[in-house]
């Protein structure tokens, strides 16, 4: 572990060989640290207050929420970026700035929902963690996201912390997520330190990575990727340490540590484990290609392939033995996305309109379109910079830099998938990984540009560092705004009044009351059929086991059936065989259009033409069916109990 500590020291180690000036006197360094600390403390307080104002204005439907939000974010982010990559910042200052930056960038999600789950997947992970705490059993099936029960790493960690500290499950989860967020930032710094000794490059890489679309909201939510990505970055850093030529015993220790972390990642999140395997594959490939010219890289290439095989075998064994359903869970997303993309290329349907009916301001939408172009410009510049400096860099560093360039290049084809309904979700999730390569590849170019701008102009002592720094900070602001806007819609980012068909606003008082009533009167674990939004609340706060339908279990056929016509025999047989107990009906489905255009699940055979997909008679027909008994009735939500022994009896009239 001493080697890991020495690698971590790259956060603040100043080793830029191009700077032959003597180090700053201690008094001047302390003065700079005091100025940085005071200015960033004030900026953090102002920024946090602006975020609170933004959320309050959004909650009450007032204008200016987005302006206040981004004003609050940038008032701290830009000074933090300046102090992080400033040449005169010493070891402790740079480390403190980066930790403070990580904590501040967790604020948007923390202030968004400090007391309980809000995002779709958070309901599932929160319920899974609570069930482990209550029952002490891993690998329980989850009713909201079927596959997460097979990956208990996050849930076991949260439940263990809650048990040890007497914190609630939600507050234990917040502690885990805050720590993971800080470890992501510091992990990128340590990872960059495996490639370049300049701590300014490492700090720049951390700032650039924080601009990816998942950093502020998606990877700070209660989700298994939020913890797994933090461990993945440190596993990649340990793997690159193993690739470095040194003693066999040290290499074996780093190799073993990497595999241990790979197992932990695999037990936490499937996609992160797959991406880690691919990253090691890129490292091995680039080292192998470089070994054709320099035989000294044969050892690193072999280590890279062994890491690829080891992590890949871990993933394959887990998915084959523990979670064979994972492949079926992931396949439809990519398969449907490719079909839709092919339809677009052939002039057919399958495309989606970006920012359709979005309430995001025009400048945020324009930034979202500009951010990929800015990233492309930076990636091309980083590639040219790598090519020009390839003869000066150490051979292994050159090969590892090439691997990071290839990883970053994966960002651009994934961006095209955002144009398809099924590929959009996968594209967003991939950016958190490909942007890691982008950050590591672009960071040396950023520092080189700043250093070049510091050179005197002619015989004058004037430099262009001020304009260059301002331009880079402007680009930082544009990319952060644009990527966040493209990665998460405003309903997730901003509070507001209850809206039917929105995951983040599904917990209305009426639905919560119905879920609590069923829990208090019938207990936990009842199997029920519900729409997507009722299912979130009944499956989390209500502690039940809802099903919202799938291609193999078309539960929505119950709602689609016209009154007076027989129910499909297949669905009735499935309901009886699988011992479903209750049916939840939200009559708003006949009155309003879902905010995210989904009633039950993505492939539902229900029209989405701007009008409600059901008639009121379709949703009130259950009052007349003899094999359904109404046990709860609210203004919009009704709960029925299945009585399959009454199947075949005549329909009740006048009910």
Please tell me about this protein's structure:
The protein is mainly alpha-helical and 655 residues long. The protein folds into 2 domains: 2-493, no CATH class; 503-646, 3-Layer(aba) Sandwich (Rossmann fold). The protein contains 25 helices and 5 strands. It has helices at residues 2-8, 26-59, 65-85, 91-104, 107-112, 120-135, 153-165, 169-193, 199-209, 224-243, 248-266, 270-291, 298-322, 326-345, 362-389, 395-409, 411-416, 423-453, 465-487, 490-493, 509-522, 532-539, 557-560, 569-577, 616-620, and strands at residues 527-529, 545-547, 582-586, 628-633, 637-642. α12 (270-291) packs across α16 (395-409). The chain starts with a helix and ends in a 13-residue tail after the last strand.
Please give the structural blueprint:
Elements: H1 2-8, H2 26-59, H3 65-85, H4 91-104, H5 107-112, H6 120-135, H7 153-165, H8 169-193, H9 199-209, H10 224-243, H11 248-266, H12 270-291, H13 298-322, H14 326-345, H15 362-389, H16 395-409, H17 411-416, H18 423-453, H19 465-487, H20 490-493, H21 509-522, E1 527-529, H22 532-539, E2 545-547, H23 557-560, H24 569-577, E3 582-586, H25 616-620, E4 628-633, E5 637-642
Parallel strand pairs: 1-2, 1-3
Antiparallel strand pairs: 3-5, 4-5
Helix pairs in contact: 2-3, 3-4, 3-19, 4-8, 6-7, 7-8, 8-9, 8-10, 9-18, 10-11, 10-12, 10-13, 11-12, 11-13, 12-13, 12-16, 14-18, 15-16, 15-18, 15-19, 16-18, 18-19
């Amino acid at each position: 572990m001493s080697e890991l500590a020495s690698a971590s020291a790259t956060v603040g180690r100043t080793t830029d060989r191009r700077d032959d000036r003597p180090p700053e006197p201690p008094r001047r360094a302390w003065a700079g640290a005091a100025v940085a600390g005071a200015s960033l403390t004030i900026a953090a307080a102002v920024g946090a207050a602006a975020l609170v104002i933004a959320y309050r204005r959004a909650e009450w439907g007032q204008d200016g929420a987005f302006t206040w939000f981004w004003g609050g974010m940038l008032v701290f982010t830009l000074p933090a970026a300046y102090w992080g990559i400033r040449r005169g910042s010493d070891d402790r200052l740079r480390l403190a700035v980066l930790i403070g930056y990580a904590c501040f960038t967790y604020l948007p999600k923390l202030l968004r929902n400090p007391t309980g789950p809000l995002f779709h997947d958070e309901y599932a992970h929160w319920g899974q963690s609570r069930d482990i705490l209550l029952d002490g059993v891993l690998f329980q099936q989850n009713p909201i996201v079927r596959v997460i029960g097979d990956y208990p790493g996050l849930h076991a960690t949260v439940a263990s912390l809650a048990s040890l500290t007497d914190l609630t499950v939600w507050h234990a989860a917040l502690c885990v997520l805050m720590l993971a967020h800080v470890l992501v930032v510091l992990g990128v710094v340590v990872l960059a330190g495996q490639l370049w000794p300049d701590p300014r490059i490492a700090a720049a890489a951390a700032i650039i990575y924080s601009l990816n679309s998942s950093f502020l909201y998606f990877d700070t939510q209660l989700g298994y990727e939020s913890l797994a990505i933090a461990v993945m970055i440190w596993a990649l850093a340990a793997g690159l340490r193993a690739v470095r030529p040194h003693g066999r015993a040290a290499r074996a220790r780093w190799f073993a540590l990497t595999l241990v972390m790979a197992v932990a990642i695999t037990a936490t999140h499937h996609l992160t484990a797959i991406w880690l395997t691919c990253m090691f594959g890129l490292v091995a490939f680039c080292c192998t290609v470089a070994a054709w010219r320099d035989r000294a890289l044969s050892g690193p290439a072999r280590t890279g392939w062994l890491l690829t095989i080891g992590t890949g075998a871990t993933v394959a064994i887990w998915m084959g033995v523990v979670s064979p359903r994972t492949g079926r869970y992931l396949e439809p997303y990519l398969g449907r996305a490719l079909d839709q993309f092919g339809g677009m290329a052939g002039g057919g349907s399958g495309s989606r309109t970006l920012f359709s009916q979005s309430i995001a301001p025009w400048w945020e939408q324009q930034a979202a379109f500009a951010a990929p172009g800015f990233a492309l410009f930076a990636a091309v510049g980083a590639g040219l910079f790598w090519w020009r400096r390839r003869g000066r860099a150490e051979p292994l560093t050159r090969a590892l830099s090439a691997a990071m360039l290839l990883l970053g290049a994966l960002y651009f084809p994934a961006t095209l998938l955002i144009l398809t309904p099924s590929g959009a979700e996968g594209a967003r999730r991939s950016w958190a990984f490909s942007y890691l390569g982008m950050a590591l590849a672009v960071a040396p170019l950023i520092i080189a540009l700043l250093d070049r701008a510091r050179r005197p102009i002619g015989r004058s002592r004037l430099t262009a560092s001020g304009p260059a720094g301002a331009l880079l900070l402007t680009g930082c602001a544009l990319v952060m705004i644009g990527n966040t806007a493209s990665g998460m819609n405003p309903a997730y980012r901003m509070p507001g009044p209850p809206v039917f068909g929105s995951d983040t606003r599904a917990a209305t008082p009426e639905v919560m009351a119905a879920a609590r009533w069923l829990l208090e009167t019938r207990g936990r674990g009842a199997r029920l059929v519900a729409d997507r939004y009722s299912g979130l609340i009944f499956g989390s706060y209500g502690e039940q086991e809802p099903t919202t339908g799938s291609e193999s279990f078309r539960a929505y056929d119950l709602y689609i059936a016209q009154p007076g016509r027989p129910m499909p025999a297949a669905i009735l047989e499935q309901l009886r065989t699988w011992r479903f107990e209750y049916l939840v009906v939200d009559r708003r489905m006949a009155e309003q259009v879902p905010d995210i255009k989904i009633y039950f699940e993505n492939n539902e055979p229900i029209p989405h033409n701007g009008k409600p997909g059901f008639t009121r008679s379709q949703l009130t027909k259950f009052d007349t069916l003899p094999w359904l008994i109404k046990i709860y009735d609210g203004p919009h939500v009704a709960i029925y109990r299945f009585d399959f022994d009454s199947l075949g009896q005549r329909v009740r009239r006048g009910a």
